[in-house]
């Protein structure tokens, strides 16, 4: 079974307007309330790809209730631990630029944290544990290290998609897969990454330290996959960008769905990039047919440190 875990879910209040002016009254007319948070997005796309999974994490209040109902209506299995706090609402303003306001995560008590750890302990060899999204500063990193240890001891595939100091610490647990974007990869090394050449060399350092797969996503430029044996670059398909929120999560879903169905890492990566772009080209997350229609446009190139130029 594939389990996703979103410690900090959200409702993504997504609204479109031609020109967003800060410091002014802006009126919008196209509004969507999507369940969000990285693990939840991974679950939604996995389900759309026909891959069974369960969404774990924490949710509470009327927003938490909305998210659970929405997911269940879509056929996504959920097993959230309830919080007293209301789950956050993240604001996504789609205008000539994309502006995002992401709220903080919930304060969680020891009981709630042990409940999640129990769920991870109950997982079995061959399962996947996808820990995705921001991790509140109030929870010590040692707690997540413990979850990663449980995964290692039980041969559960640990996938990590987070950012900031948590990512820096948790890469030491040598996840099966991480998917930083260029900026997040840079944060890991306290530098600014620009271009595939530099991304490749830093992703390679992570692989040398023992990680299984590193995918560096680079928005409209595509992505890189680096493993112990190979490194490939994918160009993203071209299209009309509508909403890139969830593109990274869709890439992760496409990779996992394909790999879990027996495809190798390169094919899984290609499928993931198609899913990421298919999401960027629509308001909500991609559907299977959108991703598959783009697959032939995802061009892969093997790369090495010498021949990547941009
Ligand atoms: N403007 C775009 N055009 C085409 N594909 C895109 C675009 N933005 C994102 N994507 C696709 O989604 C993937 C993930 O996007 P990215 O923005 O790097 O992730 P994140 O949302 O995690 O920052 C990219 O690798 C690419 O396949
Ligand atoms: O947990 P964080 O880092 O605040 O991110 C949460 C946000 O990320 C998203 O999951 C989108 O992530 P990506 O665009 O990176 O795929 C939104 O749904 C959500 O609002």
Name the features.
310 residues; alpha/beta; 10-stranded mixed sheet; 4-stranded mixed sheet; 37% helix; binds adenosine-5'-diphosphate; binds 1,6-di-O-phosphono-beta-D-fructofuranose; 1-phosphofructokinase activity
Structure description:
The chain has about 300 residues and is of the alpha/beta class. The protein contains 10 helices and 14 strands. Helix 3 (about 110-120) runs parallel beside helix 4, helix 5 (about 165-170) packs across helix 6 (about 180-190) and helix 9 crosses helix 10. The protein is globular, with a radius of gyration of 18 Å. It starts with a strand and ends in an 8-residue tail after the last strand. It comes from Planococcus shenhongbingii. Belongs to the carbohydrate kinase pfkB family. Belongs to the carbohydrate kinase PfkB family. LacC subfamily.
- Strands, count: 14
CA gyration radius, whole angstroms: 18 Å
Helix count?
10
Biggest sheet: strands side by side, in what order? Answer: 5-4-1-8-9-10-11-12-13-14
**N-C termini distance:** 38 Å
User: What best-fitting shape do the alpha-carbon axes yield?
Assistant: globular
**Which class do the helix and strand fractions yield?**
alpha/beta
Major sheet description: 10 strands, mixed
List segments where confidence is low: pLDDT < 50 over at least 5 consecutive residues: none
């Amino acid at each position: 079974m594939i389990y996703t875990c979103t410690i900090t879910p959200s409702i993504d209040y997504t609204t479109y307007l031609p020109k967003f002016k800060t410091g002014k009254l802006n009126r919008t007319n196209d509004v969507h309330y999507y369940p969000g948070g990285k693990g939840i997005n991974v679950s939604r796309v996995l389900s759309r790809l026909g891959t069974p999974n369960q969404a774990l994490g924490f949710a509470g209040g009327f927003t938490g209730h909305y998210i659970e109902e929405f997911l269940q209506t879509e056929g996504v299995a959920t097993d959230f631990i309830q919080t007293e706090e209301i789950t956050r609402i993240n604001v996504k303003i789609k205008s000539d630029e994309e502006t995002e306001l992401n709220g903080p995560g919930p304060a969680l008590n020891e009981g709630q944290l042990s409940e999640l750890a129990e769920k991870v302990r109950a997982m079995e060899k061959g399962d996947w544990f996808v820990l995705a999204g921001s991790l509140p500063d109030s929870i010590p990193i040692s707690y997540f290290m413990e979850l990663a240890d449980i995964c290692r001891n039980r041969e559960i595939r640990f996938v990590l998609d987070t950012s900031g100091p948590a990512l820096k610490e948790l890469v030491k647990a040598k996840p099966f897969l991480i998917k930083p974007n260029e900026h997040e990869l840079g944060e890991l090394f306290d530098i600014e990454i620009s271009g595939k050449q530099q991304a490749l060399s830093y992703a390679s350092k992570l692989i040398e330290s023992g990680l299984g797969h590193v995918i560096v996503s680079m928005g409209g430029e595509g992505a890189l996959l680096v493993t112990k044996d190979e490194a490939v670059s994918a160009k993203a398909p071209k299209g009309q960008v509508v909403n890139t929120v969830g593109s990274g999560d869709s890439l992760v879903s496409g990779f996992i769905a394909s790999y879990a169905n027996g495809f190798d890492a390169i094919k899984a990566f290609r499928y993931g990039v198609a899913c990421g772009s298919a999401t960027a080209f629509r308001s909500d997350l991609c559907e299977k047919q959108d991703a598959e229609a783009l697959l032939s446009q995802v061009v892969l190139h093997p790369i090495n440190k010498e021949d990547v130029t941009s």
